Amino acid sequence: MSATITETLRKVDLNTVEDAHQYDFSSLTPYVHPPETKKDLPWAELVTLDLEDYGRPGGKERLAKQLEHAVHHVGFFYVKNYGLTDEQVQQQFTLAKAFFDLPTEEKAKYEVDYANADYNGWRRAGRSKISTARDNVEIFNIPKFTQDFIGKYPQPELVKAHLPEIEVFAKALHSNVVLPLLRLFAIVLQLPDEEYLVKQHTYEKKSEDHFRYMIYRKRTPEEHAASGFGQSTGHTDLGTVTLLFRQPIAGLQILGEDGNWTYVSAQPGTITVNLADTISHLTGGWLKSSVHRVVAPPEDQWQYDRTGLLYFARPHNDTVLVPIDDSPVLKAAGVKTRFEEPVTMEQWVKAKQTLQLNPEIAAKKYAEAGDGTVEVIGGFKDRRYK
Questions:
Q1: To the nearest 10°, the Cα dihedral for 169, 175, 177, 182?
Q2: Is 196 a member of any domain?
Q3: Which one of 4, 189, 274, 355 has the fewest CB atoms closer than 10 angstroms to its CB?
Q4: Is the dihedral of CA 46, 51, 53, 55 positive or negative?
Q5: Which of 314, 40, 8, 29 is nearest to 164 (CA)?
Q6: What is the signed CA dihedral for 366, 367, 369, 374, rounded to 10 degrees?
Q7: Count of domains observed in the chain
Q8: What CA–CA distances, in Å, run from 304 to 237, 286, 299?
Q9: Long-range contacts of range 65-69, CB-CB < 8 Å, 24 or more positions apart?
Q10: DSSP state of 204
Q11: Torsion over CA of 156, 158, 164 and 167, rounded to 10 degrees?
């Protein structure tokens, strides 16, 4: 797939960025990927889609055929040839490193609004517990570059200096990866309109897509032991698909249909894609929102932080989360709605983010239920995984 050149919505006035040139890439410490583990781990066998085939005659049909098993039974796969250069990817990792290296008091100026489940901005580490240890995860979320969000969230000078590149990068992911995948899903579902899902995910209309920098801070042996060698509990993502750039630190695991956890390997030149809750809601559970978690890396990687670049795709906020009614595949499967009442995407995001951003609220609701589940909204229950 050829690189997408995207017009940026904004023009950054570098005169408003203090000492802008100190944030030039030539002035930033380049990010260097840690070495891969030498440990022999149980790796997941995942299909890889070559998006270069997408535009060729019959390419979409070939790719959809490759996807059939993965989207229904696994929920994870890789894509390659997604139209961004290695240099562009490297620059975003460098920005992520530079952001997380900022002093805590600087990052705190951009902290998320936990109480109102507004996740754009910086999420500090230590807000939840893994076993008896506080989590070691920091996140920085950047919303879509549309009129709904322009100027709504302040940004640190570092990020402001590079907003044009970040915008091009995020929009390329949406156009080069998300939209083609939605057309492939439509083919798998045998929808009469190949654009059905695309129409629910146009970039300009309001939705909660966001681009993320993420870091799992390295831990001491004592901290690993206190955490039970876990870094996040098993969970599903709440949107349509999540895109994760290659990260050599072994830790991401997926839960198979056989009940076993396997590791997702770092395949060069790929993005790891996982299906999430919303696409599952829209198909009555037929497209699989995969349960995954992050565990402590092998000991030969304990000395490294685990830095991530992610993009979260979501449908328009006014999308009602009911199963698609003109899919022969879904009709044959007899799928039903997963909610007891109509729920929009905006309502779903608010409800699940409230639980994710406020561990004390989630803990109380789980305790009240007493069966390892929690009602998110409209009768739909989420559950805890180890």
A1: 150
A2: yes
A3: 4
A4: positive
A5: 8
A6: -10
A7: 1
A8: 25, 38, 10
A9: 67/184, 67/185, 67/188, 68/188
A10: S
A11: -60
Q: Is residue 276 part of a domain?
A: yes
Helix, strand, or coil (residue 368): helix
Q: Is residue 357 part of a domain?
A: no
Domain of residue 166: give its range: 16-335
Using the predicted structure, report yes or no on whether residue 2 has a pLDDT greater than 70.
no
Please provide the DSSP assignment of 267-288 as one string.
-TTEEEEEE-HHHHHTTTT-S-
HEC string of 327-338 equals CHHHHHHCCCCC
What pLDDT digit, counting tens, does each position of 278-336 carry? Answer: 999 999 999 999 999 999 999 999 999 999 999 999 999 999 999 999 999 999 999 99
List the CATH number of the domain containing 128: 2.60.120.330
Tens-place pLDDT, residues 174-225: 999 999 999 999 999 999 999 999 999 999 999 999 999 999 999 999 989 8
Enter the pTM of the model: 0.94
Q: Which residues, at least 6 apart from 356, have a Cβ–Cβ distance to it below 8 Å?
A: 119, 238, 362
- Residue 151 neighbours by CB under 8 Å, 6+ apart: none
Residue that is written with structure tokens 């685990």 in the block: 306
As given in the structure block, the two tokens for residue 314 are 């979501």
272: left (phi over 0), alpha (psi -120 to 50) or beta: beta
Amino acid at 296: A
CA-CA-CA-CA dihedral for 51, 177, 312, 269, to nearest 10? 40
Instruction: Please name which of 173, 180, 200, 174 lies closest in space to residue 62, comparing C-alpha atoms.
Output: 180
75, two tokens: 């929920």
Rounded CA separation 31/274 (Å): 25
Place of tokens 């993320």: 212
Contacts of 122 (CB under 8 A, 6+ apart): 107, 108, 110, 111, 112, 138, 139, 140
Please name which of 82, 78, 76 lies closest in space to residue 54, comparing C-alpha atoms.
Answer: 82
Show the CA angle centred on residue 11, arms to residues 105 and 176, nearest 5°: 90
| 3-class DSSP state of 312 | strand
